[in-house]
Design brief:
The complex is a heterodimer of chains A (108) and B (123).
Chain A: E1 4-7, E2 10-13, E3 19-25, E4 33-38, E5 45-49, E6 53-54, E7 62-67, E8 70-75, E9 85-90, E10 103-107
Parallel strand pairs in A: 2-10
Antiparallel strand pairs in A: 1-3, 3-8, 4-5, 4-9, 5-6, 7-8, 9-10
Chain B: E1 3-6, E2 10-12, E3 18-25, E4 34-39, E5 45-52, E6 57-60, E7 69-73, E8 78-83, E9 92-99, E10 110-113, E11 117-121
Parallel strand pairs in B: 2-11
Antiparallel strand pairs in B: 1-3, 3-8, 4-5, 4-9, 5-6, 7-8, 9-10, 9-11
The chains are: A mainly beta (108), B mainly beta (123).
Chain lengths: 108, 123
Amino acid sequence: EIVMTQSPATLSVSPGERATLSCRASQSVSSNLAWYQQKPGQAPRLLIYGASTRATGIPARFSGSGSGTEFTLTISSLQSEDFAVYYCQQYNNWPPQTFGQGTKVEIK
Amino acid sequence: EVQLVQSGAEVKKPGESLKISCKGSGYSFTSYWIGWVRQMPGKGLEWMGIIYPGDSDTRYSPSFQGQVTISADKSISTAYLQWSSLKASDTAMYYCARPSIAARRFPSAFDIWGQGTMVTVSS
């Protein structure tokens, strides 16, 4: 089973600043990596798939990069609606298609 | 509109059985995998298992194998998650989700999610 490790656990950022979230896989997942955003009381929402492709309707301030074992989600200028928990997920080796433990982006 | 609609919240006692549902609409139900994801209170997302309704091919996470059963009834475009004997530790929100691509060989990232079913197990 592939283990996904996200860092940091919590990221404190001021509105308008840049946020960089990391996700590491215990073995290569190629580019089969997704990022999700989850707000309290809501289902997760797909942001990025294929490591770097934005899902439909996702603003351009969200970008993903990486391949193999190291991945990054960047939010270029944080808006108030971006404060949430973010999860990465590998879907290359399955079952299971494992999630990371999440990074909470909070207001500084 | 493509959507997954899950059954309502459940409150059960330890040892009871339960089957929750996830109804797909707006797309070809038999052409996409449907997965189940657990979220315990205040915790992260856990991939439980997945089913391909077209032929009922089902795969489980080792963590959930033998603990739950995933099934689907393609005649009514509905997937199920069931327990034969609930435990307090099964208390969680359960989401069904559909991958973005209709690929039999390989489930991709989940782009359609149900609203979640909260299951509470308490004596």
